[in-house]
Amino acid sequence: MYHWKVVILQLNQNDHPVKKILIMNGPNLNLLGKREPTIYGSQTFEDYFQTLQQLFPEVELHYFQSNHEGALIDKIHEIGFTFDGIVLNAGAYTHTSVAIADALSAVTTPAVEVHISNVHAREAFRHHSYLSSRVKGVIVGLGLRGYELAVRYFI
Ligand code: DQA
Asked: What is the pTM of this model?
């Protein structure tokens, strides 16, 4: 009895395997465009995601947003052994969630933490992140451009 395992390897034009990167947004980031535009800008993330896809046609970009801590953790578990990178803006869970920090440590896919606003120029409770010690690096305060810079790190 033979057991065959078929591995389908997708290659980009330069013969490199296509990188899979997940952009993950946490609570209230579904309201980007409407939410406190003086802090977060007036563009929706869906709109900006299209820009990202145009900027990185050679990358398989995925997008996931949830307002629920457990759903974010489930997604990290789901893709965290096969994807090449996670670009994570966990919103307010950044400042509260040991569980998301543990999920990042539990998987092998590296992450970069992104914040649209400069959290260090805001209220003191935003200055601490439970996630920063579990990621490769942190980009804060550069607006939506921070997501682009984080994707660049992985490619
Ligand atoms: C944020 C900063 C967090 O403090 C806040 O709770 C958010 C957004 C940012 O992108 O600037 O929801 O992560």
From this structure: 0.93
